Known about the structure:
Layout lengths: L31 H12 L22 H11 L16 E6 L12 E8 L16 E7 L3 H4 L6 E11 L2 E10 L12 H9 L8 E8 L2 E10 L27 E6 L7 E4 L5 E8 L5 H18 L15 H13 L10 E5 L8 E2 L35 H4 L3 H43 L8 H24 L4
Parallel strand pairs: 1-6
Antiparallel strand pairs: 1-2, 2-3, 3-4, 4-5, 5-7, 6-7, 8-10, 8-11, 9-10, 11-12
Helix pairs in contact: 1-2, 4-8, 6-8, 8-9
Amino acid sequence: MLVAVLLLSLPVCAQHGIRPRGDVNCDWEVNIADVNVLIEDIFTDLPYHSLYTYAHDINSDKEINLADLNMLIGAILGDEMAPMPTFSGTLPVLYINTEGHQDIVSKEEYLQADWWIDAMGIEGYESIGTAANPLGTQIKGRGNATWTNRDKKPYRLKLDTKQAMLGMPANRHWVLLANTDYWMGQMNDVLPFEIGRRMGMAWNPRIEPVEVVLNGQYIGMYFLAEQIRVGKNRVNIIEQDDGETNPQKITGGWLVEIDNYDEPGQIYVYDYAGRKMKITPKSPEVLSDEQRDYITTLLNMVNEAIYVEDKEDRTWEQYIDIDSLAIFYIVQEAIDNPEAFSGSCYMHKERGEDTKLIFGPMWDCGSSFYRFTATYQFNDFIYENMPSYCRSWWIGEIAKFPHFQERVRHHWKRFYNDVYPQMRGYLNMFAAKIEQAGNADFVRWPQYQGRNTTIRVNDYLMPCFDKKVAWLESQWGSED
């Protein structure tokens, strides 16, 4: 269907910039072609979606209807429209254009895309590629609740070639975290990942904040993060082949996740009450019968050794590295994360009959300080008074072992005396770095409360952190 409107257009925006409001067909112009597309969308009752049909909603009332058509025609005839939300310019900008400007609607199927990073002249960062000479990647959705229940979506990138990104070591595999639950100042992952690094964890993903433009639309501030996978600069263990059968090789390396979602190929372990613990193999992913038997047997031996009546028995320490677990646990307690041992809980194991499961890396600490209220004092361990969606596998039982308590107190004193005093300065530095980008993100996504980062860190996050640390000090002490 065509409409008799004069073929006028607003100024063209370069295709590496922000599309103007009313550019419905994604050609970086506003003209009769957009009117025709919008009419088609209205007649087919196109539903509003705050990411993929954002440009169709000309008047920003979260509907796609005749009011948008009237405003679009007015704009073509000379009426002014509010500018599209755009990046702050205080962080590097990652541009992604999918092939044919297709919407990213799947977590399973990749789309081909071009990408480049403009470092915006910011010290310490380097640009990669240009609009005229972009690099190639594949992109798809990722996450669970963050993918299905949020308008601002997280993504996974698989670059055509390895790239060192924003100072992080070269790799093909990256994720874009949307941080839609992180209203206390975008620090739910920043804080624990940094604590873990300073406490000596084997590896935690590095993250760098970026502003993202997808198919010409500014989609907010994201954290570009290293994907958890086996590799020299990531989980540094021997990589085990899918379908391996050699008895020596199947002893490692293993990367597995205690999961709170159902995934294909999971291994099940049942606790003392008969509740099913779901463990997802991450590397290798496709298991031979020999691999499945090996890892299932190992995890069941761990499980049986944990649920013993005699808590002086240290058999479980033959399977789990106690110090890695103590450090992992302390970090999760310090941020009061009740979901820590429920899901996104990673363990890895090097090859060898005598090697142990090591806890880590950290991932997805979105439930940090979940119990916040104006009066809550954070005076519970994370496995006590948990929300209904958490199981907190193993840790409540392991906490009963005297030797584990001893190792926790040992590492806690290092945290309390050496690491904790540095965290306020670190958080304020990071908050200042993303402050203006968070404010720009708020213009695009006001429902996620990304603005005023420094205020949120100092008025909410740090008081919660301080309260929890003070209570833990009352339990575990602080003197050498």
